[in-house]
Amino acid sequence: MILQAMKFNEFQDCKALLDMLEDNEYVMKYKYEIEVKFEEMIDWFLRIKMGITTRPIPVYMGNNKKVNPLELYMVVKKEGGRRTVTSNNLWEMVSKDMGRDYEDGDYMRILYAMYLDIIIYYYKFKSVQGDVRGDQTQGYAGNKDNAAGEGRRTMSTDCIPED
Asked: Residue 53 gets which letter from DSSP?
């Protein structure tokens, strides 16, 4: 199985796992394996990629109750994403959907911000970046004379973070 062999050595590995989460049927079928890999992904991204060593894995709330980050991610995604959940004040509902008390909504919001927000932001950035590169490459390949005539031979990537 691809999940068991999955290792996190670069952000593309994280992107591959996050892409898998688009298939809800797949997530339900391999829930346990995905939960394990999701925590490994968070650990790799925060510790190795970002150099953040102060956030312990596994994730716990302030009252020493373990939180499943995959479940948190999936519930927030189902409700429209962090921005929608925050602007509609739905964190208490997210907490309740996860089998917690309404009062734990603030914990869920904080944990999402601490562990998932930057990964999801980076994932969306890299997805859009890949789409833009693909569009620009196709545009130039289809009309090399026009691209060369306008002096555009390469795309500047100076402002894009490296993996």
From this structure: -
